[in-house]
TrEMBL record:
Family under the similarity heading: Belongs to the short-chain dehydrogenases/reductases (SDR) family.
Gene3D superfamilies cross-referenced by the UniProt entry: NAD(P)-binding Rossmann-like Domain
Keywords (A to Z) from UniProt: Oxidoreductase
One Pfam family linked to the record: adh_short
Oxidoreductase among keywords: yes
UniProt cross-references to InterPro entries, sorted A to Z: NAD(P)-bd_dom_sf (IPR036291), Sc_DH/Rdtase_CS (IPR020904), SDR_fam (IPR002347)
Protein name per UniProt: SDR family NAD(P)-dependent oxidoreductase
Length: 251
């Protein structure tokens, strides 16, 4: 009999996913998922003294890998209480007409379709839990559109709708759904958005104090730790210097 609840985290090999794994390790067994097995192994080694950890190596875009991984979970791991849909990223920051179609497709494939695949695979297990909870990592970009971000914003607006829709549909099963919408968080996010251009990435976070991944992990832990009758539906988190997706006060 497992005494700890089990949380599955996508995109756990860096940023918000990794910070969330670290903060949840105290109270949860963890299934950490990502594309970079070496990073997952390092995180597993780091957390091994605190909790039991299983790594799953898949790309959320790859539908059959996602379903295979979940369907073939070891028996001992077939009870999942919490799903953190964190995997997601931005590719490029360009006007819609100039943006590369491959970049736009990647954002829809990862942020929207990937989240749907993982959720469809994991929800049958979550429904069995007495404490089912899904946390979807959206973005301020899901609530507001900013220039050069049409498709990224559209992908995160889809996450917002999926959070609301899942909340309706999972009511009969007592599954809580929390939507977390961060503003500027300094992670690998901008480095990926700018395809490895460190200078452009650094510039996004220059002149103000951005959020760090742990700030978002703290909010996730807060939502998960709320009393059983309390459902934190939506959390928007900005750095102190931010007031909208496109408004950051830089010194
Ligand atoms: C990340 C935040 O403002 O760059 O989703 O879209 S933002």
């Amino acid at each position: 009999m497992n005494t700890k609840r089990t949380a599955l985290i996508t995109g756990a090999s860096s940023g918000i996913g990794m910070a969330t794994a670290k903060i949840l390790a105290k109270n949860y067994r963890l299934i950490i998922c990502g594309r970079r097995q070496n990073r997952l192994d390092e995180l597993k080694d780091l957390l091994a003294k605190e909790t039991e950890v299983l790594t799953l190596n898949f790309d959320v875009r790859d539908k059959s890998s996602v379903f295979n991984a979940i369907e073939n979970l070891p028996e001992h791991w077939k009870s999942i209480d919490v799903l953190i849909n964190n995997a997601g990223n931005a590719h490029g920051l360009a006007t819609f007409d100039a943006a590369e179609l491959d970049d736009l497709e990647a954002m829809i494939d990862i942020n929207v379709k990937g989240l749907i695949y993982v959720s469809k695979a994991v929800i049958p297990l979550i429904k069995q839990s007495e404490n089912g909870h899904i946390v979807n990592i959206s973005s301020i970009a899901g609530k507001e559109v900013y220039p050069n971000g049409a498709t990224y914003c559209a992908s995160k607006a889809a996450v917002e709708s999926l959070s609301k829709g899942m909340r309706f549909d999972l009511l009969p099963f007592g599954v809580k759904v929390t939507n977390v919408a961060p503003g500027a968080v300094e992670t690998e996010f901008s480095l990926v958005r700018f395809k490895g251009n460190q200078e452009k990435s650094d510039n996004v976070y220059a002149g103000f104090e951005p959020l760090v991944a742990e700030d978002i992990a703290d909010a996730i832990a807060y939502a998960l730790n709320a009393p059983k009758h309390v459902q934190i539906a939506d959390v928007t988190i900005f750095p102190r210097a931010q007031a909208s997706g496109a408004t950051i006060y830089k010194k």
